[in-house]
Design brief:
172 residues; Tetracycline Repressor, domain 2; globular; DNA-binding; mainly alpha; homodimer
Chain lengths: 172, 172
DNA sequence: GTCTATACCCGGATAGAC
DNA sequence: GTCTATCCGGGTATAGAC
């Protein structure tokens, strides 16, 4: 579940994270991960049951990092805006990890328990405990972020302005 | 570019659309498309240069269908809400096509010219011609839609309520 | 226990024969 | 225009060396 990893398991996850950061999702193959560690792909299956469980470990770590950013934002005078800023900054710092975390159905059973809820709790709190509003705000932030990362907005678009409009409108 | 297709080309795109609808994105392989037409995969390359160009034809058709829905919504008393309703309905009716249209960098050069802009123009108009607001609204709608389709919201979440909150907040 | 070699099936794509 | 044969690169199961 991403928490109780052997030292070798941690090395594998670290190698996978480096690969993902450096070369993107399509470089994240069992053969390439193994290559980084001077071993063969089938050997990885002694440490992880399949590729998805390695990805789940990466995603779990991503949620922990995101929650840590949110925790710092909580002290801000405008927590909703601060959370949005941290969300955007996280995704821009690690776009490939962000895509891995958000652009597919989540394999919740494979995740370290509680990591998703921990991040979500900060968001709900920043939006005054209003779950419906928090979900709308998350949808807005994810939409802006992923469309931005994927280059879906037109070239000249003022994305700072769009972010501002959305955050203003959705403030609790 | 998806407009001037030979009759055989149209058959190929139709077979691809059926496959995508019926079995999802991972079933959309050159071998499976060819199988539906009683031919071999390499023969497809006489009609399309690569798989991405077949996908681009599907995406182009998706944008045309979406724009047609938006055109109907334009006559509504509350165009912004009507557009959002149509957007959500389109994605729920054809979730695999919606993912294909939105969850990767768009290969704009391969698309039928103008189809993306035609759909976008309806959105901007529904939001009073305010491009920043329209982008925020698109981001919200896409975020809600894709998170909903991917099952990312918690099981008991009241998504109708979250949609309502977002649309109210972002109304022009 | 840990790793290797081998192999299977799937994918996209190309070359060349008919 | 369609075929067969083939290449390369994926995930992954199995068997066996150390």
């Amino acid at each position: 579940m991403g928490t109780d990893l052997s030292p070798r398991g941690r090395e594998i996850v670290a190698a996978a994270a480096d690969l993902l950061e450096g070369e993107g999702a399509q470089a994240l193959s069992m053969r390439r991960i193994a290559e980084r560690l001077g071993m063969r792909a089938p050997s990885l299956y002694r440490h992880f049951p399949d590729k998805r469980s390695i990805e789940a470990a990466l995603v779990s770590q991503g949620f922990r990092d995101l929650a840590a950013r949110f925790a710092q934002a909580s002290g801000d005078g405008d927590p909703a805006a601060a959370i949005a800023r941290e969300y955007r900054a996280f995704a821009h710092a690690r776009p490939h990890l962000y895509r891995l975390m958000t652009t597919r159905p989540l394999d919740r059973g494979a995740l370290a328990p509680g990591v998703e809820d921990a991040a979500a709790a900060h968001v709900v709190r920043a939006f005054g405990g209003d779950a419906d509003l928090a979900r709308a705000a998350w949808a807005f932030a994810h939409g802006m972020t992923i469309l931005e990362i994927d280059g879906r907005f037109p070239p000249g678009a003022d994305l700072d302005a769009a972010w501002r409009r959305g955050i203003e409108a959705l403030r609790p």
